[in-house]
From TrEMBL:
This is RING finger protein 151-like. Keywords: Coiled coil, Metal-binding, Zinc, Zinc-finger. Signal peptide: none annotated. InterPro entries: Znf_RING, Znf_RING/FYVE/PHD, Znf_RING_CS, Znf_TRAF. GO terms for molecular function: zinc ion binding. Residues 101-150 form the TRAF-type domain. Pfam families: zf-C3HC4_2, zf-TRAF. A zinc finger (TRAF-type) spans 101-150. Residues 160-187 form a coiled coil. Residues 18-57 form the RING-type domain. The keyword Metal-binding applies.
């Protein structure tokens, strides 16, 4: 919903009007395709049920929306208007650009009493008088306990009962804190145990690798020895042929099959 046209002292150019609400553009967004502009609060709901520009019907989506061009925005923001609380007594006139800042401090804007649960609503300028006598304002107990209590409840206030209540609350808070601390500690212990178990597993793995390496050193010479034996048998009994490959590999042909062997093995 835009800013009400009736508030403006200037004539409103057509391109500063929203085609959805017919008021002056508020938080304006324009479509990059057709450059038609609308209030953000008007065009987003429109796009939930339409896929075209309300003015020219061009196909559009919310990703085609962008902020109004700087020059256009400046023209819009310079439009002179009255404060929307002028009926309540505010006689301030200002450019649209300063509207939000003025509303923040306008003395005629209705505000709610800050003392919970007071629901009194008054113009901002009258609120200080109310809060001074508000039944819900906090006052310090003058019967001895100095606790802060809602003024309206002071008549039925009993220092001992209130303090007991306070102590009970503190006790509950302390219990909750202890529970949280215990949970923290349990989790830390769990984590420490996990880290310890991982370290032990790593140590076991290192031991295993070491014993495997040792075993390998014992096995390799036996394997080499056996291959040498096998080679001798092949050479002696079957008169196999060797072909040198020049790359430290020997190819042994026997019975139509070829065996590749590193040359170094033969010299062991
Ligand atoms: Zn609008
Ligand atoms: Zn359009
Ligand atoms: Zn005002
Ligand atoms: Zn109040
Ligand atoms: Zn008291």
């Amino acid at each position: 919903m835009g800013v009400l046209k009736v508030l403006f002292l200037d004539d409103i150019p057509d391109d500063c009007t929203c085609a959805v609400c017919h008021e002056v553009l508020e938080n304006p967004r324009e479509f990059s395709r057709c450059q038609h502009a609308f209030c953000e609060g008007c065009i987003l709901p429109w796009l939930e049920s339409h896929d075209s520009c309300p003015t020219c019907r061009a196909p559009v989506t919310s990703s085609d929306l962008r902020h109004l061009h700087r020059i256009w925005r400046e023209k819009l923001y310079q439009l002179l208007m009255r404060c929307e609380f002028h009926d309540a007594g505010c006689d301030v006139t200002l450019p649209l650009k300063k509207r939000d800042a003025h509303i923040e401090e306008c003395e005629f804007v209705t505000v709610v009493c800050p003392n919970k649960p007071c629901a009194v609503r008054l113009p901002r300028a009258e609120m200080p008088d109310h809060t001074e006598i508000c039944q819900h304002r906090l006052v310090s107990c003058n019967k001895g306990c100095e606790m802060e209590i809602s003024y309206g409840l002071m008549g039925e206030h009993n220092c001992i009962r209130a303090l007991r209540h306070e102590v009970n609350n503190l006790h509950k808070e302390q219990q909750n804190l202890l529970k949280a601390l215990k949970k923290d500690r349990d989790e830390r212990l769990k984590l420490e145990k996990f880290v310890h178990d991982q370290a032990c597993a790593m140590e076991d793995l290192a031991d295993l690798i070491e014993s495997l390496t040792t075993a390998l050193f014992l096995i390799v010479p036996i394997v080499v020895f056996e291959i040498e034996q096998w080679f001798d048998i092949v050479l002696d009994r079957f008169g196999a042929l060797f072909f040198g490959t020049g790359a430290g590999i020997l190819v042994l042909e026997w019975n139509g099959d070829f065996f590749k062997l590193p040359y170094s093995l033969l010299r062991l």
